[in-house]
Amino acid sequence: MIRALTRTAAVAAALCAAGCKSQPSVPAAATPPVLSAPVPLFNGRDTSGWVQVLDSKWTVEDGVLLARQDPKGRRDGESWLVTEKDFTDFLLAVKFRVTPGGNSGVFLRDPIPRATRLAAPDGGNPGPWESGIEANINAVDPEYPTGSIWAIAKGTKGVEHAGDWNDMVIEVRGDRVSTWVNGQVAVSNATQTRTKTGGIGLQRHGTPAFADKLVEFKQIDIQEL
Fold first, then answer.
1. Under 8 Å CB-to-CB from 112, ≥6 apart: which residues?
2. C-alpha separations of 16 from 7, 130, 161 in Å
3. Which of 61, 111, 119, 145 could form a disulfide with 198 if both were Cys (CB 3.0 to 4.6 A apart)?
């Protein structure tokens, strides 16, 4: 069934029919979209539906999904938790907390198969933040603060509450990605051309600089579009 065009899309289509080559994207809404039919990716009990890549363990404690760094692990204690399933267009809502000064991220559409990453001694290259997209979680990053799309779009600074629970909503639709952190727009319709579909992942950052930083998630919901 062909869906009716929205008013905005209809206007854009009419303009392009008149001879335009392209139209600027519509800015993301000031408030985050609400998932009307959310499906949990994290069940609150274990890591069912996810695949751990590399060595720092992801565990569940009191309903919270977390990862502490194993400094002896590969990639200086780096590890990733990636969904078994691939996704294309979606809304994703996550509730996270990272020790102040910590570094994490949410990977989007990592196209490299999990079996390939598991077979590689270093988890496979390029990493998920390069093969796919990463919504950064790092309150002190001077260039790509929390909500930024790593190496693609710099987000609004100061939207994360470091050391406290935070809400992030991510919209991935076609070649566009938007993020909202704690109700504020961080990135509005950034364009990416890296990937069309893939796994969703979570990052436990390596290196000594983040050895004592805890990464926690207690809600990860998705709605496919």
1. 124, 126, 128, 131, 198
2. 14, 33, 43
3. 111
First-to-last alpha carbon distance for the chain, in angstroms, is 15
Residue 111: which of 76, 136, 94, 86 has the closest Cα?
A: 86
Q: Are 153 and 27 in contact (CB under 8 A)?
A: no
Model pTM greater than 0.85? yes
Name the residue with tokens 């990716």.
Answer: 41
Which parts of the chain have pLDDT scores under 70?
A: 1-25
Residue among 186, 116, 178 nearest 158 (CA): 186
Instruction: Answer whether 162's CB lies under 8 Å from 141's CB.
Output: no
- 105-131, pLDDT tens digit by residue? 999 999 999 999 999 999 999 999 999
CA-wise closest residue to 155 among 216, 225, 81, 105: 105
